[in-house]
Amino acid sequence: MRRTITAGALTCLALAALTACGGGDDKKDSAAPSAALDGRGPVTFVTGKDRSGNLQKQIDGWNSAHPKEQVRVVELPDEPNDQRQQMIQNAQTKSDAYGVLNLDVVWTAEFAANRWLTPLPKDQVDLSKMLPATVTTGQYRDNLYAVPSTSDAGMLYYRKDLLDKAGISAPPKTYAEMWADCDKVKALPEGKGVDCYFTEVNKTESLTISAVEAIEAQGGSILDASGKPTVNTPQAKAGIEFLAGARKDRMPKEAVTLDTEGGRRYFQGGKLLFQRQWPYQYAMANATDGSSKVAGKFAVAPLPGQNGPGVANLGGHNLAISAFAKNKATALDFIKYLTGEQAQRANLMATSQAPTVASLYDDPELTKKFPYLPVLKQAISTAKPRPVVVKYGDVTAAIQGSVYDAVNGGKPVDQALTDLQGKLTTLTAGQ
């Protein structure tokens, strides 16, 4: 689920271009930290919460082999918005407290344009084994700023036991099929008290993801290929109307308060038939320690859409080096270690998080343990990103506010999208 361009490397013209696209600030110092990847010694690794415990195991492995270059984990809150804000606050003070950053894939442009990341040498990082879609997320203006660590794409979790009981042999491919399946299951004694569907509709980053997937499934987009807003279209309207209708008639009444982890617990508690969720949930929902009521009872399929398979959002996390970090040579080596094939394989086995190394999706041992891997690989290859913009924080806040109003009845869908079109036009002007 659940992922600083230096002044020494820029001409005045390039700095002006960054300012024009929204990443610059006239009040910024003309001097920026050196991009030189030198310095050996301790490093801090800043990331969201590790609920699996596997991250610390991998870092313990690094620390055992590098006694003079120890890595210490700094865990940030669960909510991506809070993680991003804390990283930005650290960068704005030019603090060296944060070394390696575990960035959501959609933050690259914002962090790079604001000169908060150290450019990485492409000739020192082997990206050839990674899924092409993941490599793109670490780049900005043809430069590499982050190395793909984990990928992500939304999938449909469903209660296979209940579909089987209702005589349904395959998961739904369309919204209409999904609603029909819900009605059949709810007519069963076993279906009493089971809600139909859940995707996140609370006012967090996950609502931006839900909006991307709903609009793209209707053939629309939030921004077009040139970066211009396109939410004043029939396709965008249809996507948000789907979310609003599902929220009203098919989701649990608690939906507006459930975040990613809340949704996971709801599904694991046996309260959901269908759920849009990230790969990380698979291992936790299949746990046999008593924490999950649905272990062995569910399966995973591609997201449904209006007239056929839907569209997943491209998620995941990339590892980058703060422009203000010390010991950047150690930081780069640590990134190579944590994004290497061996570490990614171990992480997949322990957490079910999506790797970025392509060959792992075809490994017989892994596909036996995680039969959804072919589905996930296809979802990642066709996934659509959230808006790739320099002012990402403002853009996602605008999307969340307008879509929340539309989905939860605060405004008519038409009015909410008209307002959003105006906000996005202003925020993306000149980039």
UniProtKB/TrEMBL annotation:
Pfam families attached here? SBP_bac_8
Q: Which GO terms describe its biological process?
A: maltodextrin transmembrane transport; maltose transport
Alphabetized, the UniProt keywords read:
Signal, Transport
Q: Where is this region: Disordered?
A: 24-43
What the entry lists under SUPFAM superfamilies is as follows:
Periplasmic binding protein-like II
MF (Gene Ontology): maltose binding
**GO CC terms in record:** ATP-binding cassette (ABC) transporter complex, substrate-binding subunit-containing
Which stretch is the leader sequence?
A: 1-22
Indicate the family of this protein: Belongs to the bacterial solute-binding protein 1 family.
Q: What is this protein called?
A: ABC transporter substrate-binding protein
